[in-house]
User: Which sequence fits this backbone?
């Protein structure tokens, strides 16, 4: 007999936890839609030559390939025809390029699906996980005004999830690269330095500074000192963020362009009503991916910085250059929901989820089955989610079942209650029981649930 076991690197939940996870998905979806984003789903696998672009990178070295048994029998050289998606960005690029002439631009899309990476299985790292993404894609151009709308969406999402206070931190790649130019760091060296600065949180300032001054980089000590000082800049409010930008002094044209775009974002965030304690300038944020060209975001929980970024993203100039000659700039963010859910649950920050079922209709004996079914259908027609016990058991067993399943109300209607045209209602959350006339049941349950 084969021992039942899940593969390593996946999160498989029991029903109550699955309810909590599903409610997070629903809250995120509802928020995305409230800002006018449209749903998109792409296949779980893509053609290998489409998925594996020339950009390379660590992620693309973790791809799972898909091979049918028929193809395996035929064999043949080269990679398999299909591969599982490792994020939602590459499928979006393919999708927009393929449907470019059928879409209305700016194209506002959200996508909430599983992705797959051949990570080394370890605690809190997953090979299969949900990503929840939004992006706004422009045709030929996209106003920086969209850069400020994204943090407003992030704020609305995490307010709705109610998982604690959070801070949306941002920086700007033009500001960074313009600063590098001012220090004589040009061309490919900029990307190398940027990737190293992106490791500040993990390696610490001392280690990063030593690397930048070492043989591979060989930056002068005064340049390294200026880079470290620049990366320490943080703001503590709206006015302070503007003051910190002003205090940076003059710079190259690229530097000034980045600073002006950040000022516009700050002004728009204020107009959008995002509380100023929810966003901050953080000039250590670099986002190591090469395709970011403008603003970059990272969101952290204030009371649990050890969890790391719970939402990240940024602006990119050309989403689909591998698939089309059209210029398709965009801005977007991604929430790794599986990892976030796991970490919140481990930290005890998720409230216990109740069942989506509102009511359990108990069955006292077989003679009352027809009555129980009729009552259940009446409640469903009134909008309640109802489970009916189809076999009689001791009442204590039925109440225990409802309690363990997270169902708040149990309705008890035996022959005595039927003779009085009444229903006994057991509120398992409060441990109370009351009787209500049958024709008043719907209204009373609505009041109790409200």
Assistant:
């Amino acid at each position: 007999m084969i021992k039942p076991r899940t593969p390593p690197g996946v999160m498989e939940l029991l029903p109550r936890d699955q309810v909590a996870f599903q409610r997070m998905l629903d809250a995120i979806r509802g928020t995305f839609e409230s800002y006018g984003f449209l749903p998109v789903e792409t296949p779980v696998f893509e053609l290998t030559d489409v998925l594996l672009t020339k950009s390379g990178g660590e992620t693309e070295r973790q791809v799972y390939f898909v091979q049918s048994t028929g193809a395996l029998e035929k064999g043949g050289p080269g990679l398999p025809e299909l591969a599982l998606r490792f994020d939602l960005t590459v499928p979006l690029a393919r999708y927009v390029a393929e449907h470019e002439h059928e879409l209305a631009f700016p194209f506002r899309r959200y996508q909430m699906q599983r992705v797959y990476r051949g990570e080394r299985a370890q605690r809190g790292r997953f090979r299969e996980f949900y990503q929840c993404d939004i992006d706004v894609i422009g045709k030929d151009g996209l106003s920086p005004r969209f850069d400020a709308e994204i943090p407003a969406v992030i704020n609305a999402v995490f307010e709705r999830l109610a998982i604690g206070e959070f801070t949306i931190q941002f920086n700007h790649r033009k500001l960074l690269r313009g600063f590098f130019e001012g220090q004589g760091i040009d061309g490919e060296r900029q990307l190398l330095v940027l990737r190293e600065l992106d490791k500040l949180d993990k390696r610490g300032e001392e280690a990063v500074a030593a690397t930048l001054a070492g043989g591979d980089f060989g930056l002068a000590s005064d340049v390294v000192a200026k880079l470290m000082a620049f990366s320490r800049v943080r703001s503590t409010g709206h006015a302070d963020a503007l003051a910190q930008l002003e205090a940076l002094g003059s710079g190259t044209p690229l530097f000034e362009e980045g600073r002006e775009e950040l000022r516009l974002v700050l002004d728009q965030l204020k107009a959008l009503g995002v509380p100023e304690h929810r966003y901050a300038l953080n000039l250590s944020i670099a986002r190591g991916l090469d395709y970011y060209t403008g603003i970059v975001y990272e969101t952290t929980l204030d009371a649990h910085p050890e969890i790391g970024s719970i939402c990240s993203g940024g602006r990119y100039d050309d989403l689909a250059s591998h698939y089309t000659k059209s210029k398709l700039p965009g801005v977007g963010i991604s929430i790794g929901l599986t990892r976030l859910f796991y970490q919140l649950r481990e930290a005890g920050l998720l409230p216990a989820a109740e069942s989506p079922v509102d009511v359990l209709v108990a069955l006292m004996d077989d003679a009352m089955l027809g009555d129980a079914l009729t009552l259940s259908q009446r409640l469903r027609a009134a909008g309640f989610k109802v489970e009916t016990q189809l076999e009689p058991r001791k009442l204590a067993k039925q109440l225990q079942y409802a309690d363990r399943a997270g169902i708040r109300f149990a309705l008890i209607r035996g022959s005595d209650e039927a003779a009085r045209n009444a229903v006994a209602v057991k509120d398992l959350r409060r441990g109370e029981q009351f009787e209500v006339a049958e024709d008043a049941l719907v209204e009373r349950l609505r009041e109790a649930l409200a």
About this structure: The first strand starts at residue 38 and ends at 39. The mean pLDDT is 91. Residues 237 and 282 are 12 Å apart (CA to CA). The chain has 17 helices and 16 strands.
